[in-house]
Amino acid sequence: MAAKSQPSAPKAKSLGSVGSGSAAAPGQWGRAWEVDWFSLASVIFLLLFAPFIVYYFIMACDQYSCSLTAPVVDLATGQARLSDIWAKTPPMTKTAAQLYAAWVTFQVLLYTLLPDFCHKFLPGYVGGVQEGAVTPAGVINKYQVNGLQAWLITHLLWFANSHLLFWFSPTIIFDNWIPLMWCANILGYAVSTFVMVKGYLFPTDARDCKFTGNFFYNYMMGVEFNPRIGKWFDFKLFFNGRPGIVAWTLINLSFAAKQQQLYGHVTNSMVLVNVLQAIYVLDFFWNETWYLKTFDICHDHFGWYLGWGDCVWLPYLYTLQGLYLVSHPVHLSTPHALGVLLLGLLGYYIFRVANHQKDLFRRTDGRCLIWGRKPQVVECSYMSADGQKHHSKLLASGFWGVTRHFNYTGDLLGSLAYCLACGGGHLLPYFYVIYMSILLVHRCLRDEHRCANKYGRDWERYTAAVPYRMLPGIF
């Protein structure tokens, strides 16, 4: 699933020739080197308006009971001014700043100072020191995979506080939601600026840096592929996984606690949102090693798109269903609730099995069975920036023989389930599935554009073997 995904990044012009079908020149696969006018316009639009979009959604829930149209109507009819809305918006507070600083510091300590021990006693879990994919420059980075451990420790402490220690209220996140948003923005912009400067002055690996000559594109998409401090602190892995995704389930729990405080009970819709999204979050951390070979790690450089997106966009817009249910408690009928649960589980099943098939195929170098049969394979080759020729195998069996990105289809089914749990009273909870549809289609096209540049004629053979991208017979 695409928990790691933020606002859809623009696709810049690549130097590799897709139309010729020839293999790309060494080092040309990965993030773009050149920026066309449309990409630049998209970058500037996102830099200007993505923070406003987040503010608008959260403000609408705080001041207009989650109505997306009411603020516009009030402004258009003169019943409110922008200054009035801004004046009612809670500012950043000392309490929120301390809370957020403690949260990020705690996650940094769990990430850097506590080597993973979960892989020693959890059968099937792969953690500890693991290798990532080959970078465009031919580098293979090592990672300390301990996200599941961090999630478990964090949530054990949360439940211990809620039932035994009582150091703070379980509604603390909801109660400081907007002040915390300002803190998250500060961190998002600070880390994005830092890695931009780092990429120019002291990159971790200069061979994996890309400079387009355009400041705005470099700032948004990043110039360093894997910015690091020391041996183990990898910015991309930390911010993609922590603190945003670890916080996701805590945020939902805080929303549920607020609903309990306000109404004396937690609705079945809130339970469904908590359970289905917790399954997804746990899946992410259980398969964190697999994540090292995904689009985010293998292709995206680290800039504002990931830095700010992971700090602000993900925790604030991926949790809109729980936020909505605090002020609009929805009790679903048993058939409705069961249907939402089954849809969410079906989406998760497709997503997980599809990714498991690809992971199994990679680990065994194709010497495995997919759906009880020897997998169909398309042999590919490509060149990295160091001039080395590499060979790959593309899977064309199982779910990967149905479409080229059937895991995205499962992701969308799960996303729809989260939204359907909120009923049909408001548009706001459905932002997630609308956004994910746009993002995953765009990501699909970005991925295929890069693969076409990376593999050349071999990619054409693969698309001939698997003609559809996400929906069989349609797209």
List the helices and strands and how they pair.
Elements: H1 37-63, H2 70-77, H3 82-87, H4 94-113, E1 128-134, E2 140-145, H5 147-165, H6 172-175, H7 177-201, H8 215-221, E3 228-229, E4 233-234, H9 235-241, H10 244-263, H11 268-286, H12 288-291, H13 295-299, H14 304-317, H15 320-327, H16 334-363, E5 377-383, E6 389-395, H17 399-402, H18 406-420, H19 431-455, H20 457-465
Antiparallel strand pairs: 1-2, 3-4, 5-6
Helix pairs in contact: 1-14, 4-7, 7-14, 9-14, 10-11, 10-14, 10-15, 11-15, 11-16, 11-18, 16-18, 18-19, 19-20
EC number: 1.3.1.21
Subunit structure: Interacts with DHCR24; this interaction regulates DHCR7 activity. Interacts with TMEM147.
Transmembrane segments: 37-58, 148-168, 180-201, 262-282, 332-351, 415-441
Main pleated-sheet profile? 2 strands, antiparallel
> What is the succession of H and E elements?
HHHHEEHHHHEEHHHHHHHHEEHHHH
The spatial strand order of the largest sheet comes to 1-2
Task: From the alpha carbons, calculate the radius of gyration and give it in angstroms.
Answer: 22 Å
- Estimate the helix proportion, in percent: 55-70%
What average pLDDT do the residues reach?
Answer: 87
Q: Bin the strand percentage.
A: 5-15%
- Report the total helices: 20
Q: How many domain regions?
A: 1
Q: Alpha-carbon distance between the termini?
A: 19 Å
Number of strands: 6
Structural class: mainly alpha
Low-confidence runs = 1-30
Shape: globular
